[in-house]
């Protein structure tokens, strides 16, 4: 969704916002009229006209108070709704990634997008939109007032404003580029800072603070240099605009004073000209600079909401005949990991993938689970190339027990069932099979016991078994398992394996432990051999 379409989708609220923003123009104009009428009292000779002037001064001076309150009331709903939708769109963009595209960037980069960039959009978009409406609204009203008082001043003010607009357009590409560079530098800074904070315990333990200080300082220096360069661009444009505005303002002041001396305009008109010319010129300088900020906020919106073009298949998945892998090869950075592998996996078959560390077991699993698409050879499911199968549809059929599954700061029950309907009998059976039920029954809240983020308040083995229970509860047609016994003792491992291989599902398991036992439980063993050749 583009920013234009977002505004169109909220056109009623946007209209209220426009009206509310336009009401802010009344404040400056009315204060100018109040001041000019106050000075105009000096010229009045009749008591009745003096009272009339005083009444105008009071009305013009106090009306802005009420218009500001009304303006805020009209704008607040639009601001709230837009921010909710922008955050939702950013979330949807994040969730649109498949595993392979998600891993191309660090988590800190996504955090920067969801926090820093959205905050930057919020500040720049609403502030620039309000100021643009205020500036142009003030100019339109003020221009017609000047046109009524002194047409020459009105049209010359329009010309000066046009010159300021040209200057702003000249600086626009440079300003937008500087803003993008600042965003990228901020993302790099957040990545480096998070890396240090996550490894603080290791840094302290090995007294390596000086080692990490140098790269941190270099990131900070680059960030500040980019910010300084962006500031200089803004400062130069601002100074140039100020020089043009100040020069024009002095010329108009001299000209208007000359007209007053010739008795061609009144004192009231002179005060209006003095105030309006400055107000119009300086508000338009602000308005033009905010046009650049508005365009920058549009760039930020695109960055945080536009979904990337990830390559995905269109075919639905079926699993009637199974996997067929032919001449499969894969290389990381030109280092060959898998070479010319061929095998089949039939429905309901139990398959064991073995091999020494670094032989490509997890890589093979990642290809079979669509986490890696850049391989050579053929991988089909029911005669359809796996890369041509729609990713979300694939996930509906396949579960994946990774070496590390994230545990949410939530109850045991919610961590397992996630978005599935709650079935207590089913949950208890699964927890019994993964050897967790006895432990859970000792907890006062049982299934409602709250786990800390990533299972910080449970052991590694319990975290591993919870991730297994999660996949078992979701009951996918095919279950891929990567080292399920990594954090478990032998007795518990055997119980987990028995539970897995007794399932009426296709099981593809990677393991480097209990090989002899596992070979007796499976229908097929696929061996990955270490390779050292260059592709």
How far apart are the first and last residues' alpha carbons, in Å? 42 Å
Sheet-strand content, in percent, reads 5-15%
Largest sheet: 5 strands, parallel
- The 3D shape can be described as elongated
C-alpha Rg (nearest Å): 34 Å
Helix content: 55-70%
**What's the average pLDDT?**
82
Number of E strands: 9
Order of helices and strands: HHHHHHHHHEEEHEEHEHHHHEHEHE
Please list the strands of the largest sheet in the order they lie side by side: 6-7-8-3-9
Low-confidence stretches: none
Query: Helix/strand-derived class?
Result: alpha/beta
The number of distinct helices, counting runs of at least 4 residues, comes to 17
Observed structural traits:
alpha/beta; 535 residues; 4-stranded antiparallel sheet; elongated; 9 strands; 5-stranded parallel sheet
Quick overview:
The chain has helices at 3-9, 11-40, 47-95, 99-102, 107-149, 151-198, 200-205, 209-261, 267-305, 361-368, 391-397, 412-417, 424-433, 437-441, 460-474, 490-501, 515-519; strands at residues 323-332, 335-345, 350-354, 376-381, 384-385, 398-401, 478-482, 506-510, 524-527. With 535 residues, the protein is an alpha/beta fold.
């Amino acid at each position: 969704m583009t920013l234009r379409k977002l505004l169109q989708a909220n056109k009623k609220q946007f209209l209220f916002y426009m009206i509310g923003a336009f009401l802010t123009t009344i404040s400056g104009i009315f204060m100018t009229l109040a001041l000019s009428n106050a000075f105009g009292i000096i010229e009045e000779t009749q008591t009745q006209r003096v009272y009339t002037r005083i009444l105008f001064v009071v009305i013009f001076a106090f009306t802005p108070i009420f218009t500001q309150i009304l303006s805020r009331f009209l704008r607040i709903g639009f601001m709230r709704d837009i921010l909710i939708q922008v955050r939702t769109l950013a979330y949807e963009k994040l969730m649109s990634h498949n595993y392979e595209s998600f891993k191309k960037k660090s988590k800190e980069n996504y955090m920067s997008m969801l926090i820093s960039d959205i905050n930057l959009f919020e500040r720049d978009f609403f502030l620039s939109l309000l100021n643009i409406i205020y500036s142009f609204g003030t100019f339109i009203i003020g221009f017609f007032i000047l046109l009524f008082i002194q047409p020459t001043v009105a049209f010359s003010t329009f010309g000066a404003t046009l010159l300021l607009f040209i200057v702003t357009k000249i600086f626009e590409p440079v300003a937008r580029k500087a803003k993008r560079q600042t965003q990228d530098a901020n993302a790099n800074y957040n990545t480096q800072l998070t890396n240090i904070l996550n490894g603080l315990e290791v840094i302290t333990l090995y007294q390596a603070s000086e080692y990490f200080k140098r790269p941190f300082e270099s990131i900070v220096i680059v960030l500040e240099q980019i910010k300084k360069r962006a500031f200089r661009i803004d400062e130069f444009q601002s100074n140039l605009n100020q020089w043009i505005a100040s020069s024009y303002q002095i010329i108009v002041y001299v000209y208007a004073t000359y007209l007053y001396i010739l008795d061609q305009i009144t004192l009231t008109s002179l005060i209006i000209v003095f105030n309006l010319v400055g107000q119009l010129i300086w508000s338009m300088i602000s308005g033009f600079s905010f046009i650049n900020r508005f365009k920058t906020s549009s760039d930020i919106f695109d960055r945080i909401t536009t979904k990337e073009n990830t390559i995905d298949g269109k075919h639905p998945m079926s699993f009637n005949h199974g996997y067929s892998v032919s001449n499969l090869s894969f290389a990381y950075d030109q280092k060959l990991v898998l070479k010319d592998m061929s095998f089949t996996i039939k429905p309901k078959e139990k398959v064991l993938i073995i091999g020494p560390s670094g032989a490509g077991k997890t890589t093979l699993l990642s290809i079979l689970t669509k986490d890696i698409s850049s391989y050579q050879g053929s991988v089909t499911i029911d005669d359809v190339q796996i890369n041509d199968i729609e990713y979300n549809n694939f996930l509906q059929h396949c579960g994946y027990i990774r070496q590390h599954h994230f545990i949410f700061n939530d109850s045991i029950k919610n961590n397992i069932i996630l978005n599935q309907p709650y079935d207590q009998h089913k949950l208890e059976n699964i927890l019994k099979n993964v050897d967790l039920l006895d432990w859970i029954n000792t907890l006062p809240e049982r299934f409602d016991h709250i786990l800390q983020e990533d299972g910080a308040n449970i052991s590694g083995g319990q975290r591993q078994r919870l991730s297994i229970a999660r996949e078992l509860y979701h009951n996918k047609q095919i279950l891929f398992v990567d080292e399920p016994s990594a954090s478990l003792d032998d007795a518990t491992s055997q119980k987990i394996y028995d539970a897995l291989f007794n399932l009426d599902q296709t099981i593809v398991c990677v393991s480097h432990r209990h090989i002899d036992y596992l070979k007796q439980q499976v229908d097929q063993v696929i061996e990955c051999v270490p390779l050292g050749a260059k592709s």
